[in-house]
Amino acid sequence: MINLDALLSIPYGMFVVCSGNKTFGNGFLSNVVFQITATPPRMGVCCSKDNFTANMILENKSFSISLLSQETPASVIRTFGYQSGKDNKQKLAACTLKYGSCNVPIYLDHTISYFECKLSQTVEVGSHYIFIGEVVEANFLNDNLQAMTYEYYRKVMKGKSPKNAPTYIDNSININLKTKNMSTLKKYECDVCGYVYDPAIGDEDSGIKPGTAFEDLPDDWVCPLCGVGKDNFTAID
Ligand code: FE
Questions:
Q1: What is the pLDDT of residues 32-87, one digit of tens each?
Q2: Are 192 and 223 a contacting pair, CB within 8 Å?
Q3: Contact residues for 229 (Cβ-Cβ < 8 A; gap 6+)
Q4: What mean pLDDT do residues 121-140 have?
Q5: pLDDT one-digit tens code per residue, 20-39
Q6: Cα(156) to centroid of ligand 1, in Å?
Q7: Which residues contact 142 (CB under 8 A, 6 or more apart)?
Q8: Closest residue by Cα to residue 45 from 58, 184, 210, 3
């Protein structure tokens, strides 16, 4: 048997991977970033061929990696994990950035450490590339913060893999079979990103107090992770 849930037990971190240049850059959220060799230091990044940043990495032959902390707000996850650079050309507009010797943007907000890499190899693996880069600069920004692990993202932030992530599991069939239930104090799951609205917790970032039933959320309330409206939520058991 293949129990796909077993794949979710593999520990990862959460990263923003950027490429481009000082004129125009883009970034995406990745949980599949790993060190490959120590001498020289090389890093690997798994990236969907559909990601807007993929072509930027191929063109600029460089990329940056920023390890996110647990303080990273859901809005950052939404921007880099659920919005494509094809639609949002301003992903980096309000971000704190620096540029190293490769000229790629390096994302600094909520970042524990960063790595600037020169692309040395690209491996095609079906729907994804594995980009391998030699580290040309690396440093800590906030080594006293806790790293956001993929487990923290899933269990505390209630997030799921975006569609282009290598760890994405297609649950759409199960979601479609769920029955809409408007009874009070039920949990509701976002059909797009998997965020779970728990009435016992509310949504403090949006001013929603604990104990607020899903049905009592304001009409303009949106999923704090991916930004879709209430119509895209389904009651769960
Ligand atoms: Fe969502």
A1: 999 999 999 999 999 999 999 999 999 999 999 999 999 998 889 888 998 888 88
A2: yes
A3: 220, 221, 222, 223
A4: 98
A5: 999 999 999 999 999 999 99
A6: 15
A7: 69, 111, 112
A8: 58
- pTM for this predicted structure: 0.80
| Predicted pLDDT of residue 70 | 94
Q: How far apart are CA 175 and CA 172, in angstroms?
A: 5
Q: Ligand 1 centroid to 159 CA: how many Å?
A: 8
Do residues 191 and 175 lie in contact, with contact meaning Cβ atoms separated by under 8 Å?
Answer: yes
Distance 137 CA to ligand 1 centre (A): 35
139 CA to centre of ligand 1 in angstroms: 33
Q: Summarize the confidence of residues 156-171 as an average pLDDT.
A: 73
Task: Provide φ and ψ at 98, rounded to 5°.
Answer: -135, 165
Q: Which amino acid is at 126?
A: G
Q: How high does pLDDT run on average in the chain?
A: 89
How many angstroms is it from 217 CA to the middle of ligand 1? 15
What's residue 170's pLDDT?
66
CA of 74 to the centre of ligand 1 (A): 10
Please tell me the distance between residue 15's alpha carbon and the centre of ligand 1 in angstroms. Answer: 19
Q: From ligand 1's centre to the CA of 201, what distance in Å? A: 16
- Residues sharing a CB contact under 8 Å with residue 170, sequence separation 6 or more, in sequence order: none
Give CA–CA dist 63/21, Å, rounded. Answer: 10
